[in-house]
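Bug #2210: token dump truncated for Amidophosphoribosyltransferase?
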Amino acid sequence: MWDNRAVTRPDGRLNHDLLPTESLPQDECGVFAVWAPEEDVATLTYYGLYALQHRGQESAGIAVANGRSLRVYKDMGLVSQVFNDQALRPLRGHMAIGHTRYSTTGASAWENAQPTLAGDDDRTLALAHNGNIVNSAELLDRLTEMLDGDLTQAAGEIARGSTTDTAILSSLLTMGEGEVLDRAQRLLPDVRGAFSLVFLDENRLYAARDPQGVRPLVLGRLTRGWVVASETAALDIVGASYVREIAPGEIIAIDENGLETRTFAAPQPKGCVFEYVYLARPDTRIAGREVYDARVEMGRSLARRHAVEADLVMPVPESGIPSAIGYAEESGIPYGLGLVKNAYVGRTFIAPTQSIRQLGIRLKLNPLKHVIKGKRLVVVDDSIVRGNTQRALVKMLREAGAAEVHVRISSPPVTWPCFYGIDFATRAELVAANMTLEEIRTSIGADSLGYVDPADMIAATEQPADQLCTACFSGDYPIPLPTDERTGKDWLDLERAARRTDPTDVGSQQVREQTRDFAQNPGRP
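Reproduced locally. Full output below:
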């Protein structure tokens, strides 16, 4: 269950950043799916979600189907907080999907946890989504028109309080003629944005990826089954062998007859380059490239372009470690750990008093003073968003006795927000969008500052430049953004309130119980 004593940001979300009030790039979501009639699919999904926990820490859920019925269990919190033996025991079937969430559309609330459930006694479907749909307002209009203007008649969680693009998509997939695969092939060409989907009905498991393939999605093989996951690391943890990526614009269906694949849109690959920089686990492979190796190479390129005389190269743990290793290898400067991180703070941590909160970054990082004192340091981090974390870090290192602090960043300056599933700050809050390099260096208090060159970053991925999305660095958005005023993370929450059709008006506890009952008892025997 969700521990509501966890450290929260001012907007009420759980905080996992190095500073309690800072918001770094957040890890969107992770999806996992398995079809394996002779396995405990709920437990396999549980472990798969463990491997994807870094992609979202707000809520987690699993849906299981057995050929006759479909059951969902989800709640707020980490995978280990949501699930235990008691929660997993009733989830019996031969296929399952799972989700771990960081909210980019819709509030961080129980009603928005995934997998979302939609349907009625004739059709039931559960869906989990990684990404962000940019024309969700248009899709909501389509759904509203099909329901004669009354969303409360929708067969799904959109009628029960959910305010996510995923819930809209789930309801639309249960409407229209034909089987699920046919309905998906008609609907998905009209969905714009980033979407890596896994979904199931009582009889089949499905997966689909947007035509740009913005977010990763891979297919794996068990001895007696199939696995689909956001990252290859999740295949490894359940003992599945990697088969291939789900192709951009592809939808697959899995049942006892095997795997069926269709193309619903022409592929236009634009994989997110920030997956290589920060989002994905270093032990994951994307498009044939090990993420760890890409990050090490980014560090090497930093050393070549931004050399400096120093005594120690040290990472900001943990995301800066591979690039710091690369910098040290290329420069010949010794590599060492100058900071120790408490990985548990901000997850299940009693809210600090004001006096403790003033310690800021020390809640999560503590300097090794005997390592740092008198040294000229190269400090390697993955990105700078607002600059508050780096400012606090440089100050702490100087107080620990560092002679010089040279900051190196293994990504280019982040100057634009993401609309495809990463929760970046607004452009007004992005320090690189409003300051020169020298102004940023002065602001954070570093002796020097260097970013990786965009061309070097792309080269490190070993992917063609025209097949990568670099929008957060370049402002070049490969999927057109909506002109509709109904945009932003909370637009549907606001619209539902304005229409006075939000079921939460009748009391959040009542809605919670109604939705939980629907999720666990969808009406099938």
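Output looks complete on our side. The two ends are 28 Å apart (CA to CA). Marking as cannot-reproduce; reopen if the truncation happens again.
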